[in-house]
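Why predict the complex rather than its parts? Because the way molecules touch one another can change local conformation, and only a joint prediction can capture that. The input here totals 630 residues.
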Amino acid sequence: MTLAAPQRRWIDASIDTCEQVNALIAEPVIGRASWRPGRWRNWWIAFLCAAPLALAFFVGLYWELSQGVGVFGNNTTIVWGFPIANYVWWIGIGNAGTLISALLLLTRQPWRASINRFAEAMTLFSVSIAGIFPIIHLGRPMFFYWLAPYPNVMGLWPQWRSALVWDFWAILSYLLFSVVFWYVGLIPDLATLRDRAHQPLVRKLYGAFALGFRGSAWQWSLHQGFYKTMAGLAVPLVCSVHSIVGLDFAASLMPGWQESLFPPYFVVGAMFSGFAMVIILGALIRHALNLKSLVTDRHFDAMAKITVAAACIMGFSYATEWFMSWYSGERAERSYLAYALTGHYWPLYALMMLGNVFLPQILWFKRARASMPALITVAVGVLMGMWFERILIIWNTLGHGYLPTLWRVFWPTVWDYAVMAGSVGFFITMFLVFVRILPSISMFEVRELAMQEREA
Amino acid sequence: MTRALLAAFTAPDRLLKAVEIEREAGVPALEAFTPYPIEGLSQALGQPATNIPWYMLAGGLAVAGGMYLMEWYSAVLAYPFNQGGRPHNSWPAFMLAPVEVGVLAAALTGFVVFLLKAGLPRLSHPLFEHLPFERASQDQFLLAVRAPSPGDAAVVARQRLFDAGAVWVEEVEL
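Output of the joint prediction:
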């Protein structure tokens, strides 16, 4: 038992008091001057790289909203282009943050404590970005509020059978839900920062957002009762949100889209890409903020195992798609499949298979799971593969529908690329600001974990 | 305002032990303040169940029901519209928005109930006047018991807390 104990640890054995945890996590946020002088230089370099990209995002949005959807490569056949692919990609990444946080809390996985906070922050930022894309893909984005039921002189109501209206409610509910979930988890940590900060203004700011939380047994009991119920609600919410995204496609009659497989296949894909993003962000955070003792190799090992499991499910989903296209016997379905595998975009399809199915298979080996460069290569491959999957679902089906005279190829414009790359830059910018002003790891949960592991 | 003795412990099991000792001595523990949630502490202090999930269920169901009602009203009464021969009340398609909105409403209800029951926001509290109280959000486990009347009883009460393992004891207003 004593010999086996070190194997069971999730955080480094040298961490055995609450104060060590507090110092490690809070120091970068409130002890900026004293905390490893010069370490913020890399932060500034990253910020100065990301900020111009974020600017490109807003310039792209401005240009699209002022000139119309024609600035993108969308044509009369491929009416959905980059915006919908970006939307599905970003909301998928967001889903994983909530799933990590909620599912691992419900299943009592103690390793969640080290990664849930920044995974939830990732959710917030990516869902906010995702919400922008369905608006800019509209022909008349200035009327997007018509999706909401409001008293109007036209006497009109939203079309409740429309996938666009489902999306509206799903994104809105999910975004606000994520904000509440994240903030409630943050309240005790804000109280810690309030009590640790030295400067009066900083104390007041954290104090105001901590709402005067005192950590009394009664407040904790309420906090935990609420937080765990939220986690219980978050799991079906996340699955339903991404299922609705899958229904955007599956509720149509297009070849390659009208499959009952789509909702679960989308949910797994979402978790898959999100875990890849968490691996990248976790590696950056533990290196930059010197948190190797809290985000340990064992965390990456666990995340790598989930990634390889998801990669297998993705491979199975693709195989099911191919089989159903053939088995349906429909001419359009079979033609679509042939086009996907051998048509204009086959190199992208091959890259997608490489990133989503084949590359992650190296994670079966313990050595690959323990190697940071290998893990990050796989994670980047997955993120790229998932983006190709989203864009190919759109290009292949819309560009190769029932009517051969309408078959078209999609040529992206510079604005397509600007908004896509810009959204990544905007995400990185928001994430950098987050790690600078808030604890990127949940302090109260890691304190609990440290004390439990000390007793064990 | 209640006068209380605030005693600090360095580990959660010592705090739980002290709650036990105080109860046996006939001094009810008023409240405890800890850096992370301690399972069973609230019950040991005799606090009632929070019942937050029930409020959330009620809030979520009410809003989900209201949402469906609005969809039904708009699609059947206010603006009946034949879309490909589907029934006006297309309930399978109408279920999606109420589910999403219902979950959101449950979350918001829970948040409001959490704040009301926890007495938050309350930015100013007499406890914040005591510098050592700051440790409760960091690394010490504090127990508040009803302060005895001055005299011999006070000395005995303090000593009992020190014997239970307290690292410091202070008289505060709760």
